[in-house]
Design goal:
Chain lengths: ~350, ~350, ~300
C-alpha cells in the first residue's frame, strides 16, 4: 500500500494585508522505503508542503484543501488526539536548525526519553535504554556521555544526529526532513547524508527530503519532484531528471548550479526572479522566465504530461508519451485503528 | 590577471601585490573563562595580486569572516601587518585606515541585516559617497547609476525599502553600495551563500562583469568549493585560524596537497546518483577554536597523522610567489621527520 | 534626502509598474512602496478598537485645550449656597464641589493640568534619556557602564516613592512635580534606548557604514536614530498613562499644583471627606483619571501592535 498519497494539495495563508498562495495543487505518492526529494528554491512551497503533511502550519491563518493520506489515514480530517499519535509515531520530522528544534533546558537524553515514553508508554529506565540505543544507531561517539549533554554543548553535526535520533525513537514509517543539512559544513553534511541513507535503508522508512541543493538531491533521492511557485513542475527518477530534464525550469536549475562550469564564460543563469506568491499571474508561473515559452503559456496553467513511465512534467512544450495513468482510489479509512494492518 | 588599465591611484605598479597580509592574528577573550580566548585568526599570511580574485575557503570556525574584517580594519589585528599597494596600513609613514577604506570595500553575507530597514535602498547606496564628501545630489546620481549597473532599474527599485526586495535584489544593492565609493578592491564575505541557486548564478555573472568593468580585485570568501572554483584565480584554504594551503586554482583542485583540502574536495556531492559518496572523507566536527589541538591543528582528524604532527606546527613555505602552491603539512616538508615526507 | 518619513513616495512608484527593458530584474514586488511609518499608519487605520480609544483621548485633549470655550461656568466661581450639590442641580450638570464650584468646568480645566503633567515629563525624559541611551549603547565600553550604572541608582527606588521624595524635597508645585516625574522616567527611557541601540549596533549595515568611512555621529544620525525611534516611541506612549496616574498621585498628596488651580488629583483629595454626602460627585475626578489613563494605555497597546512590523 502506498505510504503517502497527496492529491491536489492547496495551502493559502490569509492575513489582513494579503493572501499568499503557497501551494497550488500538489499531488505525489511515496512508496514504503522510497526517498522522495522535493527540490525547489525559496518561495516554491516545498517547506509548506512538508509541514502540511503533519499539519504543522499556524491554524488560524492557514487554509488547506486537498487530500493527504499517510498509511491510509486521512491526515487533514484527523482529530487532535489522532494527530498527536501520528506526529512522532507514524511520521517524524527533522528540521534545518537543530539548535532551535531541540529544547535548550533539557538534556538530549531527557528529550529522546520523553518522545519514547509519549509513544510507547514505557517506564523511564526503558526509555533511557532506548535513548542510548538510538544514539548508538546514529553513530554519536561516547553515547553515554552525550545522553547527559545539553544541546548547546554539542557541535552542529552532533546536534543534528541527536535530532535524527529523536525522530527515529518511535520507529516511524515516514521520515520528513526539512533541509536538515543546509546549515551544516560540507564535511559534516556528507556524514549526515550517508547516515540518513543508511538508516533509511536499514529501517525501511519512506523519506520525504526537502532541499534546494541539487547535489544533496543527487546523493540521497530515489525520486525527485521539482517545485516552482507552489506547483510540482517535474518529477521522476533521480538519474533521469538530472541527465535529461524535460521541464525548462529543471533544465535551467541544472545549468545554473555551479559545478565545474568553464571559468571564462558566464553561467547560464535563469533570468529574472521567482514570482510573488501574493500575486500569481495567469497561466504557467514560470512563463516570464522561460526560454521556451509559447503563446499558450501565459494563459493556461499546464497540466501534468507523462513523457515516459514514471516521469511527469507540467509544461505545454512537453509531449505526452503515455496516456495518463489510471487513478485508483485508495480505500477510505475513517477510523485510524479499524482497517489498517499492524505497523 | 594583472590589470592592464592604468589606475591613477596605483602606486606600486603591476608587480606589487594589491594586498600583503603578514602573520595576522586576532584573538577574542572569552569572558569569565579565566583568560581563555577564541583564536579566530592565528597567524595568517597571503598576498593578493592586482586584478586577481583570491578565493578563501574554509568551514565554520576557520576564521574567514574575522579575516575579512581584519583586512578592512573593521577589527584591529592583535599582531601582524597589512600592506596595501606597497604602503603599510595604519602606520606612519603608510596609508591611514580612512584612506584604506576609500580603496577597499566589503560586501556582507547576510543581505537581510546589511541594509538599514528604515532607509530606501538608493539612500543606502548613496550614503558612502555622501560620507566621503560628495554633495547630496551628486551622491544620489552615483547611486542611481550604480543601481542600473547592477541590474536594478533605479526608478523602480531606488525608493523601495529592503523588506520589499528579494534576496537576490538585496544582494545587488549591497554590491552597488560597495562600489559606490569607487574602490579598487572588494572583499566579498559569502556573497552568494544565502541565495537560491538560480539567483546565485546571476549574481556571480554580475560580479564577473563588474570586475572587468571597474578593474577590480576581489577577495572572495566562501564555504562553497564549486563557487570558489568558478570565480577564483588563486585559492587560500583555512582551518582553525590558519592557512593550510594556498595556490593557483587549477593546482589546488587537481593536485591538492593538504589532507584537509582533499577531504573538502571529496565532500562535494557528485551530482551523479550512480557515483554517490559511500564513506565520509572525514569524520567528526571541526574542533573548537578556543582550545585548538597542539602541533598541527588538523591532526585529530587527519588519516596521516603521526607523532611529529602532534608536537610541531607545520610551516607554510613560500606563500609570497604569485604562482606558488604550498601547504602547511609535514608530509610536504622533507625536513619534518614525517614518514611520507620523502615521497613527495 | 535622508528624511525619516517619506510620504512623497506613495505616488511615484504606482505610475511605474514595469521595469524598463535592459535591466536584469524585472520582477516588481507586489506591494506598494511603503516605508515603516506608512505601514504603521496603514495598520492603525484598520484597527477600529485603537481608533476608538484614540478618539476618546483626542476628545479629552480637545476639551482641555478649548476649556474656556466649552466650560459652562468658571472654575473658580464659588458659592456658599450651592455646595456639594448632586448631578443636574440648577444646570450644574455634574454637581458642585465643597466650595460650590461647578464640577464639570473644574474637570475640564483640570484636564489641562493633568494632561500637561502627563505628557511633558515623558517628552523631556524621552529626549534626555533617549539621548543618553543611544550614546551609551553605541559607544559601549566604560561610557556605557558609567551611564547605565548611574541609571541603576535611580532604579533602586520605587518610582512612586522617588517621585514623592523629589517633589517633596523641592517643595511641591506644578513645576517641581513635573521635574520629579521627568527624573523618574529618565532611567527606563535610557534603558530602552540603550537596548535598542545595542541591538542595532550589531547589525551588518552599521559595519558597512563604518566601512564607508562614516564618523560615529554621522552613523548615529542617519542609521541608528531612525531604528531606535520605534521602540522609544512605543515605550514613551505607554509611559503617558503612568505619568498621568503619578501626577494625580502627587497632587493628591499635596505635592502638585496648589489650590485653587483645578487638578484631578487635588480635587480627589479635597473631595475625599465629602464622599458620604454626594458620593457620585466626589468620585468624578477619580473616574476622569481612570478613563484618561486607561485610554492612553489602550492606545499605546494599539500603537505597539501596529509598530511591531516584522520587516
Amino acid at each position: 500500500m502506498t505510504l503517502t498519497e497527496v492529491r491536489d494539495l492547496r495551502v493559502r495563508f490569509v492575513t489582513r494585508e494579503a493572501t499568499v498562495h503557497a501551494v497550488n495543487g500538489v499531488s505525489f505518492t511515496v512508496q514504503p522505503g522510497e526517498v522522495l526529494c522535493i527540490l525547489g528554491e525559496s518561495g516554491s512551497g516545498k517547506s509548506v508542503t512538508l509541514r502540511a503533511l503533519m499539519r504543522l502550519l499556524p491554524p488560524r491563518s492557514t487554509r488547506i484543501e486537498g487530500e493527504v493520506r499517510i498509511d491510509g489515514h486521512d491526515v487533514l480530517a484527523m482529530r487532535p488526539q489522532a494527530l498527536r499519535d501520528l506526529r512522532g509515531g507514524l511520521a517524524a520530522m527533522i528540521f534545518q536548525e537543530p539548535m532551535t528544534a531541540l529544547d535548550p533546558v533539557y538534556t538530549v537524553g531527557q528529550q529522546i526519553g520523553e518522545a519514547v515514553r509519549r509513544h510507547t508508554g514505557c517506564g523511564s529506565h526503558a526509555a533511557r535504554e532506548r535513548a542510548l540505543e538510538l544514539l548508538e544507531l546514529v553513530r554519536i561517539p561516547s553515547p553515554e556521555r552525550r545522553l547527559a549533554a545539553y544541546p548547546h554543548e554539542l557541535s552542529g553535526g552532533l546536534r543534528q544526529r541527536a535530532m535524527i535520533a529523536m525522530a527515529l525513537s518511535c520507529n516511524p514509517r515516514l521520515l520528513l526532513a526539512d533541509e536538515p543539512t543546509t546549515a551544516l559544513d560540507a564535511t559534516v553534511q556528507v556524514q549526515v547524508l550517508i547516515l540518513l541513507r543508511r538508516l533509511q535503508r536499514e529501517l525501511g522508512m519512506g523519506m520525504i527530503f526537502v532541499t534546494h541543493d541539487l547535489g544533496v538531491a543527487s546523493e540521497i533521492a530515489d525520486t525527485i519532484a521539482v517545485m516552482y511557485a507552489g506547483r510540482i513542475v517535474e518529477s521522476g527518477p533521480v538519474a533521469q531528471i538530472l541527465s535529461a530534464p524535460e521541464h525548462p525550469y529543471t533544465a535551467g536549475l541544472l545549468a545554473s548550479t555551479v559545478h565545474g562550469q568553464p571559468r571564462d564564460r558566464d553561467i547560464d543563469a535563469i533570468p529574472g526572479s521567482p514570482p510573488d506568491l501574493r500575486r500569481l499571474a495567469q497561466g504557467c508561473s514560470f512563463a516570464p522566465r522561460c526560454p521556451r515559452r509559447m503563446a499558450d503559456c501565459r494563459v493556461v496553467v499546464p497540466q501534468p504530461r507523462f513523457p515516459a513511465p514514471g516521469r511527469m512534467a507540467a509544461c505545454h512544450g512537453v509531449a505526452d508519451g503515455l496516456p495518463a495513468p489510471e487513478v485508483t482510489r485508495m480505500p477510505t479509512v475513517s477510523e485510524p485503528s479499524s482497517t489498517t494492518s499492524a505497523r | 590577471m594583472g590589470s592592464l588599465i592604468h589606475d591613477p591611484r596605483d602606486r606600486g605598479g603591476l608587480q606589487q601585490p594589491m594586498l600583503i597580509a603578514r602573520d595576522l592574528r586576532k584573538h577574542f577573550l572569552v569572558k569569565g573563562s579565566g583568560g581563555k580566548s577564541v583564536k579566530a585568526v592565528d597567524g595568517v599570511s597571503f598576498t593578493v595580486g592586482k586584478g586577481e580574485t583570491l578565493g578563501v575557503v574554509g568551514e565554520s570556525g576557520c576564521g574567514k569572516s574575522t579575516l575579512a574584517r581584519l583586512l578592512l580594519h573593521l577589527l584591529k589585528p592583535d599582531t601582524g601587518e597589512l600592506v596595501f599597494d606597497g604602503d603599510p596600513v595604519g602606520i606612519v609613514p603608510g596609508i591611514a585606515v580612512d584612506a584604506l577604506r576609500r580603496q577597499v570595500q566589503m560586501v556582507f553575507q547576510d543581505s537581510y541585516s546589511s541594509l538599514n530597514p528604515r532607509m530606501p535602498v538608493r539612500d543606502s547606496v548613496a550614503f558612502g559617497p555622501f560620507v566621503q564628501g560628495k554633495k547630496k545630489d551628486e551622491a544620489r546620481h552615483i547611486a542611481r547609476e550604480l543601481l542600473a549597473k547592477v541590474g536594478l532599474d533605479p526608478g523602480v527599485f531606488g525608493p523601495r525599502y529592503p523588506h520589499e526586495l528579494s534576496g537576490g535584489q538585496k544582494q545587488r544593492v549591497n554590491i552597488a553600495r560597495a562600489l559606490a565609493t569607487g574602490p579598487r578592491m572588494v572583499i566579498l564575505d559569502e556573497p552568494v551563500s544565502a541565495l537560491d541557486k538560480s539567483v546565485e548564478a546571476q549574481v556571480l555573472n554580475l560580479l564577473r562583469a563588474l570586475k572587468r568593468q571597474f578593474n577590480l580585485t576581489y577577495v572572495f570568501i566562501s564555504h562553497d568549493l564549486n563557487v570558489v572554483q568558478y570565480i577564483s584565480d588563486r585559492v587560500l584554504v583555512m582551518y582553525l585560524g590558519r592557512v593550510v594551503e594556498i595556490g593557483p586554482i587549477g593546482a589546488i583542485f587537481e593536485r591538492p596537497l593538504h589532507p584537509y583540502t582533499r577531504a573538502l574536495l571529496a565532500s562535494r556531492p557528485s551530482m551523479d546518483p550512480a557515483r554517490r559518496i559511500q564513506e565520509p572523507p572525514i569524520t567528526g566536527d571541526p574542533p573548537n577554536p578556543i582550545d585548538p589541538p597542539s602541533g598541527c591543528r588538523f591532526h585529530t582528524r587527519c588519516p596521516f597523522a603521526e607523532e611529529v604532527c602532534t608536537t610541531t606546527d607545520p610551516k607554510l613555505g613560500n606563500w609570497q610567489g604569485p604562482q606558488s602552491h604550498v601547504a602547511a603539512c609535514h608530509m610536504h616538508d622533507p625536513l619534518s621527520g614525517h614518514s611520507r615526507a620523502a615521497s613527495v | 534626502m535622508f528624511k525619516l518619513a517619506k510620504t512623497a513616495l506613495m505616488t511615484d512608484t504606482i505610475v511605474l509598474d514595469q521595469a524598463r527593458e535592459g535591466f536584469d530584474e524585472q520582477a516588481i514586488p507586489a506591494t506598494r512602496v511603503r516605508g515603516y511609518w506608512q505601514s504603521v499608519l496603514y495598520r492603525l487605520r484598520h484597527d477600529p478598537l485603537t481608533l476608538f480609544f484614540a478618539a476618546i483621548v483626542l476628545l479629552i485633549v480637545l476639551a482641555a485645550i478649548c476649556a474656556p470655550l466649552i466650560a459652562p461656568f468658571g472654575p473658580f466661581k464659588e458659592s456658599i449656597v450651592g455646595r456639594l450639590k448632586p448631578f443636574g442641580w440648577r444646570s450644574h450638570l455634574l454637581g458642585t464641589d465643597e466650595l460650590g464650584r461647578d464640577m464639570l468646568s473644574r474637570l475640564i480645566y483640570g484636564g489641562r493640568v493633568s494632561l500637561m503633567m502627563g505628557v511633558v515629563p515623558v517628552l523631556i525624559a524621552s529626549l534626555v534619556g533617549g539621548m543618553l541611551g543611544v550614546v551609551g549603547g553605541f559607544v559601549g565600553g566604560r561610557t556605557n557602564t558609567a551611564i547605565m550604572r548611574a541609571m541603576d541608582v535611580f532604579y533602586a527606588f520605587p518610582s512612586v516613592l522617588l517621585a514623592v521624595a523629589i517633589a517633596g524635597a523641592m517643595g511641591g508645585g506644578m513645576g517641581n512635580g513635573m521635574l520629579a516625574l521627568t527624573l523618574v522616567f529618565i532611567p527606563p527611557m535610557c534603558r530602552v534606548a540603550e537596548t535598542a541601540t545595542t541591538q542595532i549596533r550589531a547589525l551588518d549595515f552599521i559595519e558597512a557604514a563604518r566601512a564607508s568611512g562614516a564618523r560615529t555621529t554621522t552613523i548615529i544620525r542617519y542609521h541608528v536614530l531612525g531604528n531606535v525611534l520605534g521602540p522609544v516611541f512605543i515605550y514613551a506612549s505607554s509611559l503617558v498613562s503612568v505619568s498621568i496616574l503619578l501626577a494625580s498621585g502627587l497632587s493628591f498628596l499635596g505635592l502638585g499644583v496648589r489650590p485653587p488651580v483645578p487638578d484631578w488629583g487635588l480635587m480627589l483629595s479635597t473631595l475625599r471627606q465629602s464622599i458620604y454626602v454626594v458620593p457620585l460627585v466626589c468620585a468624578l475626578p477619580g473616574v476622569a483619571i481612570f478613563i484618561t489613563s486607561m485610554c492612553c494605555n489602550l492606545v499605546s497597546d494599539g500603537l505597539r501592535a501596529a509598530m511591531d512590523v516584522r520587516m
